[in-house]
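# nightly structure sweep
# worker-07 picked up a monomer target from the shared queue
# config: single-sequence mode, recycle default, output format = structure tokens
# input follows
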Amino acid sequence: MSKNEKSENRRALPKFALTMAGSLVLGGLLGFVIGLSHAFGLEAAALTEGLNRALEAATPWGIPVTSVITLGACFLLCRSAGKKFAAWDGGDEDETSAAIELAMSWVLLLSSVQLLINLFFLAAFCVYCMDKEISALALVGVFLVSCGFVIFAQQKAVDLERKMNPEKHGSVYDAKFQKKWLESCDESERRQIGQACYRAYMVGTRFCLGLWLVLVVLSLVFEMSILPVSVLLLVWGVMQVAYTLECIRLGKGGGTLF
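# output follows
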């Protein structure tokens, strides 16, 4: 091992040791809090029951209320961006262009978050409300309507982006939209997408590690099966394996990032 490698290891070791020590301290504090909760008679069953009741009450209203908020914001952003585009002079580096791009990015983000919320509350309905006096058909209808507006908002954002950049092509209604859109991006845009993907991978890895720790601690308080941890590790494993295999493929000259 070279001196440079040894030096880097020595510099990184204290930070690693502090991280491990901090994790041990955090685990000790959580254990102390758990012990206090048992000492004061705070039962896990009561907390679980309270959480279940809260979700049961919120589930019928979750999709329509959140849809009004997020998709309403998407509508306002699209409207504002459309007005700015109508007054745009076509300059590549114009502040108006940057403002439109930012607004469309927020539209895509909010609509994607709303789709996840829809899926969550649909699953919550199956768990908490199937035996209640709530029409499953009505909730499914609300779910489909909200998803339709999500796709519509994303389509409006993509259409405006294509107007600003005529070289872009693809439709959100096309199953191969992402592939076609990437093919129409230039090298700078592909590099930006690659950096964003790597950032997302790193955040996802750290989130999975933190969530695993939370689930392990919660298993000491609540009666939990191994299923949540198994699903988390499955998702984490798929992400890790897919990333590593793609790096191996690209390292062998299998092609570019996209």
